[in-house]
Write a structure and sequence with these properties.
This protein is mainly α and 197 residues long. It has 7 helices and no strands. It is elongated, with a radius of gyration of 27 Å.
Length: 197
Amino acid sequence: MPIFIHFSPLVFPLLLLLVPVISTPEKHTMPPKQDLVRTSCVHASYPNICLRTLSSYSGLAKTPRDLAQAAVKVSLARARKASVFLSQLKNPSKREVGALNDCIVQMGDSVDELSETLEELHHLHGGDFQWRMSNAQTWVSAALTNEDTCLDGFKEIDGNIRSDVKKKVTNLARITSNALYLINLLDESRGKRTVRT
């Protein structure tokens, strides 16, 4: 014999809202795919700079290779801007002129080396992967060395130009350092993921 329970008209709508929650079995959904930029940048040398400079690639970078290429593109663009910035500094002292000229040459070399890095990353595939990876690591390391050398040229010089150069080139060096980290991460992840050509 069925049992009937009588509810007041106010309680019944509340029970209807609870029934789906109580009676619906829990769905096992997969968590959304983790953001490659966020998960890759978390251990970078400069994680906040990494996130800030690469956040526009979130969703576009589907593989570690895509992200490493994006990081080198950002570094290359910043190196070009730094080179232009340095060449437009006004009224340097005699001591600053020498350091500034050396720095401009080094930024030009960094632009060339980052371009070579990007070229190597574009051609990563199969049998010559390790050779091209080694080249990319060497080129980006050379660019980073040039940026550090530029800063060294201003160590004994005081003034506004030194401060401006230090700010611009230090930021570039940090971005380039992150690019090297992501290239190394790509090299480490090769065994785990397929590198697209």
